[in-house]
Amino acid sequence: MAEPILSVRDLHTHFFADEGVVRAVDGTSFDLYQGRTLGIVGESGCGKSVTARSILRIVERPGRIVSGQILLRRDNGGSVDLVQLASDGAEMRAIRGGEIGLVFQEPMSSLSAFHTVGNQLIEAIRLHSSLSKRAARTRAIELLAMVGIPRPAQRVDAYSFELSGGLRQRVMIALALAAEPRILIADEPTTALDVTTQAQILDLLRRLQQERGLAVILITHDMGVIAEMTDDVVVMYLGHEVEKGPVDAIFHAPQHPYTRSLLRSIPSVLAEPRSRLATISGSIPHPYARPPGCPFHPRCAEYIAGVCEKSFPAEVSIADRHDVACHLYTTELATA
Ligand code: SF4
User: Fold this and answer.
1) Which of 26, 219, 262, 310 is a plausible cystine mate for 239, CB 3.0–4.6 Å?
2) Any residues with Cβ below 6 Å from ligand 1, and which?
């Protein structure tokens, strides 16, 4: 496989509040490749959105990246560590929105209500290019057409509140692609949409990814979206990656008890009529009261007493590019 376009290495992003420290991301590592989609999945509070915000250097106080590397490969074969850049410096601002585009869950809070979608697109286009205002307006209309907005020449002068939720999300995608980024981060891009519109937006993302050879990070809590959209998967729980690998391995040979629980909780058309949908037992611990040892142990059906609550499991390789962090697979136990 080619060199990754983005490598996250042992990333730690913590939030320092009066009540204590929340280790929102606590040692995540993964690689993203050109033309592939990496899914980051887990329940809310698992650290997936903070991972995305860390990559873009938009973590808000009292949070900050404590350690780790975020290596963005450059065309000359070298790389830049985004952690070392000033979050509001010129280089990071050029990367954010320029080389890495972002689609948020709720376009209403990301789009300005006071400017037309066209003016927001023109601003984004001109920020990262030398196009004239007239040429940028033409490009804005092209972008609206590209993301499937009907009558783009008229809609360019619309305000976001005049558009449906699905059209607003298409505008967000057009904005994210305005500067022709190499990487697109989509954070729960369909969660706020109805099922039909969700499917349309996922189709659009897939088409754009294939046409433009984008590297995509797709953040979701929905294993169905992961199955449909991704090539590689990182499963996160309480700030830790617990399993990562190719999507086929995650779905057909899941190793971590948490991954298996997530998969059991997907509704299936093959299930017995009126059968209960499996849920993951217990609830996510309070962020200030992280369980010791394996953070999943209070909810784990395969918990090993005397081991799992005592030490944090190291990540081990199960197969090619398939890693898991669970005491069921650590060498010490396997050889005991
Ligand atoms: Fe379960 Fe132990 Fe594995 Fe954690 S380390 S997932 S508690 S078996």
Assistant:
1) 26
2) 256-257, 294, 296-297, 300, 302-304, 308, 313, 326-328
Query: What is the distance in A from the centroid of ligand 1 to the CA of 33?
Result: 30
What phi, psi does 193 have (nearest 5°)?
A: -110, 155
Model confidence, pTM: 0.91
Query: Positive or negative CA dihedral for 190, 195, 197, 200?
Result: positive
Residue type, 61: R
How do the pLDDT tens digits run along the chain, 336 residues long?
A: 688 999 999 999 999 988 889 999 999 999 999 999 999 999 888 899 999 999 999 999 999 999 999 999 988 879 999 999 999 999 999 999 899 999 987 766 778 889 999 999 999 999 888 999 999 999 999 999 999 999 999 999 999 999 998 899 899 999 999 989 999 999 988 887 888 888 989 999 999 999 999 999 999 999 999 999 999 999 999 999 999 999 999 999 999 999 999 998 776 555 566 666 667 777 888 878 889 999 999 999 999 999 999 999 999 999 999 999 999 998 555 444
Pocket test for ligand 1, best of 236, 238, 318, 328 (most atoms within 8 A of CB): 328
Residue nearest to atom 1 of ligand 1 (CA): 303
What distance in angstroms lies between residue 302's CA and the mean position of ligand 1's atoms? 6
Q: How many CB atoms lie within 10 A of CB 182?
A: 19
